[in-house]
Write a structure and sequence with these properties.
Blueprint: H1 17-31, E1 34-39, H2 63-68, H3 71-76, H4 78-94, H5 99-107, E2 113-118, H6 124-127, E3 134-135, E4 138-145, E5 155-156, E6 174-178, H7 190-197, E7 202-206, H8 214-225, E8 229-233, H9 241-244, E9 249-251, H10 255-266
Parallel strand pairs: 1-2, 1-7, 2-3, 7-8, 8-9
Antiparallel strand pairs: 4-5, 4-6
The structure holds 2'-O-acetyl adenosine-5-diphosphoribose.
């Protein structure tokens, strides 16, 4: 890692920045035995889904949506929460995986050992064919019991056009299987910790602002585990100083442009 954090553009082809970025990324991925990718809301932008923060189109520009991101909201007003969440689920359901999701599902075949983790709850990686995705913030299409004392495992959500869903075991009100603000999510990190413990050669952070601490925590975990090359793919590279200090490189391109080009350069699917 550079002692001063990333130096964007270092080693790039000035004539064709995209080709230069692909060349650098492909070189690192080809040399890697173990590749880890963490995605955020930016990978789903080309599917028509808004990011959480950034501008007036972002999800949290709507104060009600921000309120619904807190675990306390569903506990205070489950009926109101579910009225709004049904709408959100329908929007997520209507979206389709884009070229970034498809490229990541192909990238898994380019590395002897590959792990994809996401902060997204839209399920689009799975719908693009990625398997074993570590969903750190849960999945909007799964539900679990609102009562923490009920030990029923989360279940796939059924269609719900009105009313409240209920727990199949205790009959109590159900909630989406999401990690909301103010809630712990440590158990969801377990598969990721296991992967990292065996070493990571390349970590790619794709489409995440770093405002929430997940990317920083993951970079720290990876650095503690051993030497790794860590790069960010984001048209607006992170402005979070702590996260920047952990990166080796930044590639200022949309995920749906750079990732398919990378997979093409790696020759995924050939032979
Ligand atoms: P943010 O909304 O904070 O950041 C999205 C990032 O995507 C920004 O840095 C954008 O620049 C970038 N971006 C936009 N278009 C892109 C594109 N085409 N390709 C690549 N990147 C692009 O979303 P997250 O970092 O994912 O938590 O947010 C982290 C967590 O905060 C979310 O999982 C959510 C939220 O609170 C929960 O829901 C628990």
């Amino acid at each position: 890692m550079s002692p001063h954090g990333p130096q964007p553009g270092c080693g790039f082809d000035r004539e064709d920045p995209l080709a230069g970025a692909v060349e650098v990324l492909a070189e690192h991925v080809r040399a890697a035995q173990r590749v880890l990718v963490l995605t955020g809301a930016g990978v789903s932008v080309a599917s028509g889904l808004p990011t959480y923060r950034g501008d007036e189109q972002s999800r949290y520009a709507d104060k009600r949506a921000l309120q619904d991101a807190f675990g306390s909201t569903i506990r205070k007003d489950p009926a109101g929460f579910w009225d709004r969440f049904r709408q959100r689920r329908a929007e997520l359901q209507a979206a389709s995986p884009n070229a970034a999701h498809h490229a990541l599902s192909e990238l898994a075949r380019c590395s002897p050992s590959f792990c994809l983790a996401t902060q997204n709850v839209d399920g689009l990686h799975g719908r693009a064919g990625s398997v074993g995705v570590v969903e750190l913030h849960g999945n909007a299409f799964r539900e679990r019991c609102l009562d923490d004392a009920c030990s029923t495992d989360p279940w796939p959500a059924a269609d719900l056009t009105a009313g409240l869903p209920h727990c199949p075991t205790c009959g109590g009100v159900a909630r989406p299987d999401l990690v909301l603000f103010g809630e712990g999510d440590d158990a969801r990190w377990t598969p990721l910790r296991s992967f990292v413990a065996e070493g990571v050669d390349v970590l790619l952070l794709v489409g995440t602002s770093g405002v929430v601490s997940v990317p920083t925590q993951l970079c720290q975990l990876v650095r503690e585990a051993g030497p790794a090359w860590i790069a960010e793919i984001n048209p607006r590279p992170t402005d979070q100083d702590e996260l920047r200090s952990l990166l080796d490189d930044q590639f200022a391109f949309p995920a749906e442009v750079l990732l398919p080009a990378l997979v093409g350069a790696l020759g995924a699917g050939e032979g």
